[in-house]
Design brief:
By secondary structure, the chain is mainly beta. The protein has a single domain, classed as Beta Barrel (Porin). Helix content is 12%, strand content 68%. It contains one helix and eight strands. The longest helix has 20 residues. The radius of gyration is 20 Å and the shape is elongated.
Length: 164
């Protein structure tokens, strides 16, 4: 009887650890992008992302961002949707890196272009409360091929993440 009880407690402990490691988070915040076209433009915008953790350190993320120029600067808008794997070190301060692929769209000086988009980067999340984190910084190299030429645009983001 004691053996069955220990086996049951062991299975309960094992499943509770894996359930604790899994989770979903939604991020929203401000983002800045230096668009790598010629001439380059500085754009402000919004980034929304969702992620799902499969283990304490491996998760999959999907990211949607839109950047817009200011009225007194040359016309420029970008929109990216990307998804990919993310690796994080869990803790109060949680650094992460990711590699995402997807699609990008740009509107510059009345011309538009759509291309493959990729992002290589990472950042740091700071857990404020059990369900709330502040993304202190996220920095990405967004790689696109607008108008037939390769661009490397720097994207910086900050905001808050709610975890379920």
């Amino acid at each position: 009887m004691a053996r069955k009880l220990f086996l049951l407690l062991g299975l309960f402990f094992l499943f509770s650890i894996s359930a604790r490691a899994q989770g979903t988070g939604i991020f929203g915040g401000y983002t800045f992008e230096h668009l790598g076209t010629s001439p380059g433009r500085n754009l402000n915008g919004v980034e929304i992302a969702a992620q799902h953790s499969f283990t304490g350190w491996f998760r999959v993320a999907a990211d949607l961002d839109g950047h817009y120029g200011v009225p007194w600067s040359p016309d420029g808008r970008t929109l990216h949707f990307m998804a990919g794997p993310e690796i994080a070190i869990p803790g109060r301060w949680s650094p992460f890196v990711h590699a995402m692929v997807g699609i990008g769209h740009v509107h510059v000086d009345g011309l538009t272009s759509t291309s493959f988009a990729g992002a290589l980067g990472g950042g740091v999340d700071y857990r404020i409360a059990p369900l709330l984190s502040w993304r202190v910084i996220q920095c990405d190299d967004v790689i696109t091929n607008f108008f037939g030429g390769a661009q490397h645009s720097v994207r910086l983001s900050t905001g808050f993440m709610i975890r379920f």
